[in-house]
Amino acid sequence: DAKTTQPTSMDCAEGRAANLPCNHSTISGNEYVYWYRQIHSQGPQYIIHGLKNNETNEMASLIITEDRKSSTLILPHATLRDTAVYYCIVREHSGGGADGLTFGKGTHLIIQP
Amino acid sequence: EPEVTQTPSHQVTQMGQEVILRCVPISNHLYFYWYRQILGQKVEFLVSFYNNEISEKSEIFDDQFSVERPDGSNFTLKIRSTKLEDSAMYFCASSERDSGLYNSPLHFGNGTRLTVT
Questions:
Q1: Which of A70, B14, B87, B111 is the most exposed, having the fewest neighbouring CB atoms within 10 Å of its CB?
Q2: Which of B30, B45, B98 lies closest to A102 in CB terms?
Q3: Which long-range contacts (CB under 8 A, 24 or more apart) does B85-89 make?
Q4: CB–CB of B93 and A91 under 8 A?
Q5: Do B103 and A91 touch (CB under 8 A)?
Q6: Does A100 have pLDDT greater than 80?
Q7: CA B96, CA B104: separation in Å to the nearest integer?
Q8: pLDDT of residue B93
Q9: Separation CA B89–CA B4 (nearest Å)
């Protein structure tokens, strides 16, 4: 799986949009971009994933650049409960379904009141 | 919303003892996983399981570890002869198989904190 690069930490004011960047310059054609987060002492929580089109769900939006070498996760109205470590993961879809996820160190997002 | 449940939330054991960590995956999911996270470190993949056999395992998953799906609902991780360095959070995850090349996301439980003394 391709390697990702994320900032170690970021701050965002409560109520503002949090934009978390991720670089994945070696991504290949069949690799999807996944975002998870881990709130302290809990299991990783799935947020969103995409291949090349921008995606939106009830939690967040995912913007993937046209060359697919980077992406941005957007939390539109951050709350204190969004403070967590956010992981950007590139995952190959082999069709078998048993391939797991490789977690990096992620970005520690701190929402300030 | 369906969720992955893990028991116990905290397990304390003495070095050399065997432990079994239990997980109930989401009911219609077919792929099962174990991960671990040593305090302050990354989440690490241990093993994936499908159709009653191991699909993939990491270097961490040596002969000390085994997994089993003893019935239609539980998925267990057994650690034989525990060592101090096995102290960690252990997370179970499951995913649903979609058709074609589209893999569905993994959904994680909230983990079992294993403390080996």
A1: B14
A2: B45
A3: B85/B38, B85/B116, B86/B114, B86/B116, B87/B38, B87/B39, B87/B114, B87/B115, B87/B116, B88/B36, B88/B37, B88/B38, B88/B39, B88/B113, B88/B114, B89/A41, B89/B36, B89/B37, B89/B39, B89/B113, B89/B114
A4: no
A5: yes
A6: no
A7: 6
A8: 95
A9: 15
